[in-house]
Design brief:
- The protein has about 150 residues and is an alpha+beta fold.
- The protein is built from two helices and eight strands.
- Strands 3-4-5-6 form a four-stranded antiparallel beta sheet, covered by helices on one side. Strands 1-2 form a two-stranded antiparallel ribbon. The protein has a two-stranded antiparallel ribbon with strand order 7-8.
């Protein structure tokens, strides 16, 4: 729907404004939702919020999405985020223990316009092992064996 309005000033001059109303479906369909990038918005899932940040080539930064529970909007350490290429964003502050990780992934895929079956990078916590290589000397029974102490 297109509407035209005139604003009359005290000095009798008029300014004309054209207002175009676009439905939410078309707004998202034509990529106009990118106008609102950088702002926290409620997602349609539980109490999650998300923010899409635009690409910043000068910083070597891809378009990406941050997802968080509403109560943690200001806590960077409680967010998860992924880049447009499905890699993790903000690796150092990524909340590995966020409640509802699968829901956060669905929100990310939808916000970035990616297929539902796309696989987002996930780095699992791996138990750190301390490996100590014992020195090899001629007293070992076989010269080609390396002993590792775990």
């Amino acid at each position: 729907m297109i509407s035209t309005y005139q604003l009359f000033k005290k000095d009798s001059s008029a300014e004309i404004y054209i207002i175009i109303e676009i439905g939410e479906h078309d707004f998202n369909r034509y990529g106009l939702d990118q106008i609102l990038e950088g702002e926290w918005k409620p997602s349609r899932k539980a109490d999650f919020w998300h923010r899409v940040d635009a690409e910043a080539p000068q910083m070597n930064q891809q378009r990406h999405v941050h997802v968080v529970h509403k109560k943690h909007l200001k806590a960077k350490s409680k967010q998860v985020s992924w880049n447009q290429d499905l890699s993790r964003h903000d690796r150092k502050s990524f909340d590995q223990n966020i409640k509802g990780l699968e829901t956060a992934k669905q929100i990310t895929l939808q916000a970035l316009g990616l297929p539902d079956d796309a696989i987002l990078e996930e780095i699992s916590k791996v138990r750190k092992l301390a490996l100590l290589m014992e020195s090899s000397n001629s007293r070992l029974p076989f010269d080609n064996i390396v002993y590792l102490k775990i």
